[in-house]
Every structure is written in C-alpha cells, then in structure tokens.
Automatic annotation (TrEMBL):
Source species of the chain: Helicobacter canis
EC identifiers of the protein: 2.1.1.-
UniProt signal peptide: none
Keywords: Methyltransferase, Transferase
CDD domains listed in its UniProt record: AdoMet_MTases (cd02440)
One Gene Ontology term from the biological process aspect of the record: methylation
Gene3D superfamilies: Vaccinia Virus protein VP39
InterPro entries, per database record: Mo5U34_MeTrfas-like (IPR027555), SAM-dependent_MTases_sf (IPR029063)
Keyword Transferase among record annotations: yes
A molecular-function term among this protein's GO annotations: methyltransferase activity
Gene responsible for this protein: cmoB
Record's protein name: Putative methyltransferase
Amino acid sequence: MANPLESKHIAPLYRAITLLDRLVEKGCASFGYNNGVQIYSESFAMPLVDSRADELIALLGGADELEWAKSLVLDKSQAPRQGKESCVLDVLALLAWRLKGWRKGPFTLASPSCSLHIDSEWQSYMKWDLLAPFVQIGGAKVADVGCNNGFYMFAMYAGRKAESPQMPQSLQKIVGFDPSGLFYCQFAWLNHLLDLPIGYELLGVQDLPAYVQRVGEKFDVIFCLGVLYHRSDVFATLKSIAQSLETGGVAFIDTLIFDINDVASTLDSSIAGLPLALSVRGSYAKMSNVYLLPNLSALEGWCERCGFESVEMLAIVPTTTREQRKTRWIDSLSLENFLDPNDSSKTIEGYPAPKRAYIKVRRK
C-alpha cells in the first residue's frame, strides 16, 4: 500500500513540517476553545534572525511568497503585515496556505502583536457544541474516525465546557483515523505547536478492527462524523465501529438523512413509517461518493442489525451556509454551489437539501 505522505504533492509539505523545529520549538503554544481552536504563543512574533528557517522557506516558494503570506497575518491594528520585518507567524501562515484546503476549523494563531485566522469551509464548532453536552470521555479510550485535521480531538483536549465538562488530563487515549495525507499534514502542523498526546493513523474506518487487534485494546468512545453516507457498504462500516468498541461502549454518529416529508407531505402514514433509504443516482449535492440516505427508522434498524442498542436521537439539523461555505482557505466549491439556485430546499440534482441526524448508540 502506497504511503500517502510520499505522493508527489504531499511529500514537499510533509518535508516542510519536519523542518518546523528549526523555526519554532515543538509545544511552544498554549490553546483554548471558543467557537474554534485558539492557539497562542509569544514565539509567533519572533523575527527571523538567522538562516535556520531558510530551507523551510525555500520549500514553500521563497522570499517573495513569504512576503505575500504577510497579507494573511494581521498586526495589532488588524492591518496586514506586508512590508514589515518577517516573523515566525509569517512562515507558519505560508505553510498553512500551502496546506489548503482547510475543511474543518476554524483555527486562530495569535501572539501579542500579530494573528492568523484560518477560516475553514466548515464552522466545525457548531457540530462540536451540539455534541459536547452528551459527551462523557473521562478516563476513556477515544477514536475519531474520519478525523480530518483533528479539530474535534483538539476541542476535546481544550476541555470544552459543557453540561458534563471533561478535563483534558482525564483522557486515557485519543487516536484519529483518516487516510488523507493532506489532512495528516494539517494535523501535524498544528500539533507541532501544541505537542499533545494525540495519535493519528493513516487508516480508514474499514481498518478499525485490524487496528484494535494489533494494539490489543478496544475503544470506549468512537466518533464517526460525516462518514457513513460516503460508504457504499454502510453495514460493514457500522460493524467495523461496533467490533472496535468495548461492550457497552458508545459511538457518536452523524449522517445525512432522507425525510420523506420533504418530498411528499401528504403520504399515507403507514408508508411514511417504513424504514426507507434514498438511493442516490450519480451524485448528491455534487458529491459522487454519497450512496444511501436513510430515514430515521432505517438508520435505527441499521444500527440495531450491526451490533448496537439504545439508539438515542440527539438532534436533526439542516446544513446551512452559515455552517458550510466557501472561504479563501479552500480551492473548491461549497454548499451554496451545490443547491438549486432557484430553490435552496433542493440540491442541484433535485434531491432534498442536506439534513443531518446526530445519534448516540451503545454497543450490545
């Protein structure tokens, strides 16, 4: 199996990340959570006084690109830093720009005199704030499947205050799983600054059972957010999660759902109550890797057949352009481009617009 970190486009970025210790000390920053992850260090404002970072800057495009990257960094007056003496945060900003697209976030890096805001496509704090009151991870072994750049794992470690706050030091273990080399590099860039004991495996959900067999322990809590509808075999996916949980372990799952009332408001109740799923033909909201959108009854049935009990519905939430939208930190289109321009209640293909169910399930 090819190493995603050795691919043509990722290898230079990964090499740049391995050189970060020439720029700034590992674990130099503190952090917190408030509508995103805020990372703070006085080191960010330090000027580039020697040549230690020259190889890193050259990998990222050289001095001209570094000068351009200063347009991303704001000084205390909220003005771009272009024309000013180069500092550590300017180099970090250039690397962050090379690591586009930033799907999950946002992240803010700040010092007393300058700051960088990575305005991700997804305002991921909205999802985490919805889930946090239901999350109990004290002393738990936790997995985040499809973890992207690790936003939710950083949020857990920030000790997000909720109805049942969990202190970071009480976590026994957190491991993220995602096969994307780009997302791993984003995570590695962030965690160089924080140096948190978070694991990251370049594996997909299908690899979970083999992983737990290899390490000899299962998880107490698994997050599987925004993954299920991308899997052509939802039963195999749910079984992989169940098999990787301790007996009585909990999984938090969010997935796109199909509400038949969105297309037929006067349907016979005996039909509306059946477990049904929308089989996507071609693409859904311009995503060709979306296969099945269940209604709530079907979703509950899937979970029960795959080894779960106690299916608890936490929320049903439409996806809006407040939560997902185009920013300069992604190069692709976003939700506003995926909806019918004349009717935002429908996707561009004519399906009902995205709606998500958040559930908490327990392994039998």
